[in-house]
Amino acid sequence: MTDYRDDFTFLPDLAVRPLGGSVIWANDEFFAEKENLVNPGPAEYRPSTFGHKGQIYDGWETRRHRGKPGDDAAIVRLGIPGVIRGIVIDTAWFTGNYPPEVSVSALAVDGYPPAEDIAARGDWVPLLDRVKVGGDCRTPFAADDENRWTHVKLTMHPDGGVARLRVHGEGRPDPALLGLGPLDLAALENGALVLDCSNRFYSSPNQLLYPGQARVMGEGWETARRRDDGNDWVRIALAGPGTIRLAEIDTSCFLGNSPGAASLTGFTRDGTEVELLARTDLLPDTRHRFALTPPTDAVQEVRLDIYPDGGLARLRLYGELTA
């Protein structure tokens, strides 16, 4: 078992493309496109694959400054705004062309101003001071800030290439949008968070809480095959204490490896366990929807048990937050 308090990389990457992350601006991307920074999965490399501008890299790479002053920067709009707990600078495959130092700053923006306006703002807040990084390696940096951010800026000092930028943290919704309609209390974008799980051999349980539909098995949560009498589980902190009225347990894309059954248990603010969904058989490749009878007290955490193991695409828990 892994707890996010021991390793911030257990938390979701708020900047990754499948969550809606986007690289909206860069001052230079001569050799390799800025959009690669937020691609899911590790960077790939094929030697001796040359384009019109040189070796093709799966990352963001700028031209050489040749001693001229200035630094290169790229701005990422987080797919899910939130509190940032840690940053990973991944320079995979960049060996003679990585930046010797980088820094990261953040910004909270209302609405949807143009990228040029965001780049021109002078109120960026430092999250990671200028630090040294190596070539062809992943370097993690913990962050200690409780503010909600919508954008981050990666600055290379002075130039070079970075394969991936990972921004791990906890989603925080826009308070102005809460209460305007049915709410998925288990969505990352609404502030839900995976606290712990029994197994994440094939993929992260955070993907259960992603928006949209999974397109392949790799976009859900899948455990290793159990060889004992136990079962796998994941525990989730909801967006806030609330009342759950509808559960959706989605096994889409999981055919020969979906769980045989599942159950849901809620936890109230004083830690009392309440049954939300008794152990119920599941079908492969199916979006199951279950009407729930809410308990008297509000629920703030939920444990999903699957029997005995397998994979799920998504978990949705629709309801309302308490006052």
TrEMBL record:
<comment type="pathway">
    <text>Nitrogen metabolism; (S)-allantoin degradation; (S)-ureidoglycolate from allantoate (aminidohydrolase route): step 1/1.</text>
</comment>
<keyword id="KW-0659">Purine metabolism</keyword>
<dbReference type="InterPro" id="IPR015908">
    <property type="entry name" value="Allantoicase_dom"/>
</dbReference>
<protein>
    <recommendedName>
        <fullName>Probable allantoicase</fullName>
        <ecNumber>3.5.3.4</ecNumber>
    </recommendedName>
</protein>
<feature type="domain" description="Allantoicase">
    <location>
        <begin position="191"/>
        <end position="321"/>
    </location>
</feature>
<dbReference type="Pfam" id="PF03561">
    <property type="entry name" value="Allantoicase"/>
</dbReference>
<dbReference type="InterPro" id="IPR008979">
    <property type="entry name" value="Galactose-bd-like_sf"/>
</dbReference>
<feature type="domain" description="Allantoicase">
    <location>
        <begin position="20"/>
        <end position="170"/>
    </location>
</feature>
<comment type="similarity">
    <text>Belongs to the allantoicase family.</text>
</comment>
<keyword id="KW-0378">Hydrolase</keyword>
<dbReference type="InterPro" id="IPR005164">
    <property type="entry name" value="Allantoicase"/>
</dbReference>
